[in-house]
Amino acid sequence: MKNNTEKLSPFRKLLFRALDGIEWIGNKLPSPLLLFAILAFTVIVISGIFSGVSVTNPTTSEVVEVKNLFSLNGLDYIFNSAVENFIAFPPLGAVLVTMLGIGLAEQTGLIHSSLKSIVFGVPNRLLTAALVFAGVMSSLAVNAGYVVLPPLGAVLFLGLGRHPLAGLAAAFAGVSGGFGANLALTSTDAILQELTADAARTIDPAYADTITVTMNYFFAAASVLLITVIGTLVTDKIVEPRLGKYEGEEEENLEKLTVREKRGMRLAGLGFLVTFAIMVYLSLGPLRGDGAYIDSPFFNALVFVIFVLFFVPGLIYGIVSKEIQNDKDLTTLLGKTMASMSGYIALAFTAGQFIAYFRETNLGTVIAFNGAEFLKNTGFTGTGLILTFMGITMLVNFFIGSSSAKWTILAPVFVPIMMNLDYSPEFTTLLYRISDSVTNMVTPLLLYFPVIIAFAQRYDKKIGIGTLISMMIPYSVAFLLGWLVLLLVWVLLGIPVGPGAPISY
User: Fold this and answer.
1) Residue 337 counted as domain residue
2) Most buried by CB count within 10 Å: which residue of 24, 238, 280, 377?
3) Sign of the C-alpha dihedral, residues 156, 146, 449, 351?
4) Which domain holds residue 445?
5) Structurally, how many domains does the chain consist of?
6) Distance (Å) of CA 206 to CA 21, 198, 201, 203
7) For residue range 397-427, what is the model confidence (pLDDT) as tens digits?
């Protein structure tokens, strides 16, 4: 990593050296594709060593046992599930479908023209904050922010003559931190509320019935400003200075919009508004469904919605700019987009095997329950209990990437423990959300981590896991410290974490 340390303070020089060391160690690891293959093989071996080790779910009394893949039955599973593991790799379809829309907008020049419009119309000093804020709010669209914002952030920074990886990192940090902060309610709130209420019901059924989807809203809304400010400062003061000047082949000088580009932008913008209006109608009408909005057919199809919202304006702009004159031109541009994703597709194969093996062996579940049992046996109370619980959650996040999957395992254990120590279920859930969010961006087991690496490699083909983790660690640490300070203020003032959701039980 090239960086200019001549004008830096002693603290930042020391910090940069430490991050350089982390990057060096991390990049000594094999390529991400090979690393996931090695990890998949390692899981197979470990499952054989710990075969038969089991834990008991204290709520359901279900026994979960490590399944041995280092056996004839395991070999049968490995061979017969390989294709399915690849196809079922959660981000694969979402990334490819979304990138078809974004790619067309990029190939036709719409994103390039939009970028120029932003560069010449928005103050540079506001762009980092706007990008982080957009990342935080993107959790409204579940995981779509991981696919859309990091590549756009990189392009935006590049157009401003800034380092594209800094833009990618800022967006990634905002999206990851956004799962613990938002100005609106999201599907995550609904999922966690259900799991928390079920866990609390084992101690106090009457109280469990009062737990609502808004249980963490006050704290989550206040956290939006916190994450936006911290994310902006870390990007501008640490991450981008450490990256230094970008000298890649993608760098270019932006000129003002031409008459044709302006006309294409106007018509593409009109196409976007019409498409957006149709989507709003569908979301409130034919695709509204009978249940909660966040469980509606429309909400469950957000990946396709995002594809359409990019595809239609991109198609219109391509026709106006003469980049698309017939169906063959359209096919060629879409093919170029998919060709640019070939490295990610190959990576998804080995990553999909690893994720599937880890889930099939139950190793993550056993680790999580043992961590919960450890907390129960510590005898900690107060600050020690809170910090230990958060530490265990952050550790578990390195083994189980899904937020809802982790809470499905941890809530039945931690919520009753914390209630017996006078902490409300809502407060326990808040601690979980903070711990989960701050470690999402530094765990290779996050399902979208390979996606971010693939986007980053468009600007630096040699980038490895070490480079990405070293970029994201400052955000992770800063978010954690900032949230701990805000949490302390919240506890000292006794502010409810949400409507009718006190800290104490």
Assistant:
1) yes
2) 238
3) negative
4) 10-493
5) 1
6) 53, 11, 8, 9
7) 887 766 776 787 778 778 888 887 788 999 9
